Amino acid sequence: MITSNQLHAIAQTIQTLGVGDDTVSTLRQDYPSVHFTYCMDDDLPNNTPVLEQEKFNLYLIDGREHCLCLTTDHQTATGIVVAEIIPE
């Protein structure tokens, strides 16, 4: 489970440190029970983020089964995708 408060704290950390691999590494250390993935937002077409920011979006991952999938359910979330938005 990933709470809304955790998600907002994670977003604040990303806003402070910037979007990138180094920030995701920091998040992995700060939240060892959460799986983090970093990609570009356009790698996730036709999906709705659970938290939208100017430079990145956050998506929740459900990893309870053998295959990972995106979810909007905080109760079943086991990870977060940090998706960087590249300005056009």
State the end-to-end CA separation. Answer: 34 Å
Mean pLDDT: 95
Categorize the overall geometry: globular
Low-confidence stretches: none
Q: What Rg do the Cα atoms give?
A: 12 Å
Q: What composes the largest sheet?
A: 5 strands, mixed
Q: Helicity level, as a percent range? A: 25-40%
Quaternary organisation of the protein chains = single chain
Count of domain modules: 1
Number of helical stretches of at least 4 residues: 2
Query: Which secondary-structure class do the elements indicate?
Result: alpha+beta
- What is the string of SSEs from the N terminus onward? HHEEEEE
Q: What is the beta-strand fraction?
A: 25-35%
Topology:
Elements: H1 4-17, H2 21-30, E1 35-40, E2 51-52, E3 56-62, E4 69-71, E5 79-84
Parallel strand pairs: 1-5
Antiparallel strand pairs: 2-3, 3-4, 3-5
Task: Briefly say what this structure is.
The chain has helices at residues 4-17, 21-30, and strands at residues 35-40, 51-52, 56-62, 69-71, 79-84.
Question: Would you give an account of this structure?
Answer:
With 88 residues, the chain is of the alpha+beta class. It has one domain (4-84). The chain is built from two helices and five strands. The protein has helices at residues 4-17, 21-30, and strands at residues 35-40, 51-52, 56-62, 69-71, 79-84. A hairpin with a 6-residue loop joins strand 3 (56-62) and strand 4 (69-71). The termini are far apart.
